[in-house]
Write a structure and sequence with these properties.
8-stranded mixed beta sheet, single chain, 185 residues, two-stranded antiparallel ribbon, alpha/beta
């Protein structure tokens, strides 16, 4: 299933990249990044106590400026397994602590990351970013643009520290699987 979904995303991006119109290519890449974040939710297992109850949604929190947010908001209300998906903006750490399951960290919030990881440790959050080194500096998934496509790296130890299980199908599609744990403060 993930191979088919990501294959469609890669195809969409490849078609857009061949287009002459630069803004269309940039829009297509934003759509692909939103699709990646959505699809990651399908291949992560959270412990039961990560949710308030059996019907609680999987919350995607957007921390900082996220340029593909409008595309990601379109997934709000869809179902991931037995749970609805909710996409929300998070401006403060308290909002994240209140129950975010997936956290996308915008570029403008990178400066807060060194102390940020200590504040959200052990709260079952799949953290995603898009800057070189994000998965080395405490994040779990780093989406990046390589020469001709959008790919992602995974830090498996950071996922385990956060109490998350990543499906092997997701790991098989990662460009790099890192095994280093979070840096010490």
């Amino acid at each position: 299933m993930i191979s088919r979904l990501l294959g469609m995303m890669f195809s969409l991006f490849a078609l857009a990249a061949s287009a002459q119109d630069r803004p269309a290519v940039e829009e297509a890449e934003l759509q692909v990044r939103a699709q990646f974040v959505y699809n990651f939710a399908n291949f992560v297992e959270w412990p039961d106590d990560a949710f308030a109850d059996a019907s609680a949604p999987i919350k995607i929190c957007l921390f900082g400026e996220v340029d593909f947010a409008p595309y990601l908001y379109t997934f709000s209300g869809t179902r991931i397994g037995d749970r609805p998906l909710a996409v929300e903006k998070a401006d403060e750490i308290e909002q994240i602590r209140a129950g975010c399951h997936i956290l996308y960290v915008g570029q403008d919030e990178r400066v807060r990351l060194p102390t940020f990881w200590q504040q959200i440790q052990y709260i079952y959050v799949l953290s995603i970013g898009d800057r070189q080194g994000f998965a080395d500096k405490g994040g779990i998934i780093n989406i990046l643009r390589t020469r001709d496509r959008v790919q992602f790296d995974v830090n498996i130890e950071n996922a385990l520290v956060n109490g998350l299980f990543l499906d092997s199908d997701l790991l098989a599609l990662a460009r790099v699987i890192k095994r280093n744990s979070r840096p010490n403060p």
